[in-house]
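Listing S7. Sequence submitted for prediction.
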Amino acid sequence: MKLVTLLPSATEIVARLGLEKNLVGVSHECDFPQTVAEVPKLTSCRINTNLSSGDIHQSVMDVVKSAISVYDLDIELLKSLQPDFIITQDLCDVCAVSFEQVEKACQEVFDENTRIISLKPKMLGDIWDDVQKVADQLSVGEKGHEFREEVRSRINEVKIRAGNAVAPKVLTIEWLDPIYIGGMWLPEMIDIVGGQVCIAERGQLAPVVNREDLAKIEPDVVLVKPCGYKLDQTMKEFELLRQQLPDWKTPPRIYLVDGNSYFNRPGPRILDSLEILAYCTHPELFADFGEQYKTGIIELGPELQRHPDLVEG
C-alpha cells in the first residue's frame, strides 16, 4: 500500500497509525516525525516564508486575489509514485494544497484505484474522528481505537488535575500582523484545561482583531503561537509583538509556543498541545508538562512586554 500525504497533520496521523513505512510522498511542510525528511516532496510554496508576518499575509492575499493557489503540486512526481491513497484536506487553501487541486490532478492522472481521503476538522471531535477514518480506510482500525483511548485518558487526566482551580482568562494569538485569535478547536481546549476563552468561538474561524480590541479585555494568560512559526521565527518578531499587545492594567503571563509543532496541526500532537496549554494556564498544577515540553515554550513574564532586551534567545 502506497500512501501520499499532502499536509503535515496527515503525515503525523499516518505515522501514529504505524504506517510511516508506506509513505511514498509528502508535502514540503511535513517535518514530523523527522524520518520523513527523506520522503519525496510533492508540493512547494509560492510565498517566501522568511518574510515578516505582515509581508507573508499580504503575499498570501495577493496570490489568493489572483485566483492562483498558494501551493504548487508536482503532478509528474505524483504520477510516477502511483499512490493507492492520497490524504489531503478541504478546510483551508492557505494551510495546504487545496482539495480542488488534488481532485483535478487525480482526474487527469489516475483511475478509480487511487482514492482520496479528505480531512476537514473544526472541533476536537473532528480531529479524533479523522484519525479513526484514516485508520479504517487504511485497514488499521484497531490502531485508531487505541489512539481514541489515549485521547480519553489524557484529556481526563488534565480535567481531573485542573479540578476546581480558579479559571484564568486565556488569550491565544495565532498570527501577529494582522492579529488572529485562535479559533476552531482552541476554545474547546481552553475549556478542558479550566480556562476562560477570550474573543474566539469554538468551531469558528480565527477572528481578526486589532490592538484596540485587545485592550478591551484583561487576559490572565496569553499564548503566542503563530501558525507555522518555530520559536526562533517568533522571536525575530518580538518587537512587533510588543507593539501589538496593549498595556493591560494587570500584565498577563505571556508564553511563546512553537506554532509549527503545536496547536495548529489537527493531528495526534493536539494532545501534546493540550498539555502545553494546561501548563501555561495552571503552571502550579502542571509543572511536569512545563518540563516535558520546555524546548517548545518560552515564558516571557509580564515585565518583558516592555523590556525585550531581557529576553535571551
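Caption to Listing S7: primary sequence and predicted C-alpha cells for the chain studied. The chain is about 40% helix and 15% strand. Residues 3-120 form a domain with the Rossmann fold fold (CATH 3.40.50.1980).
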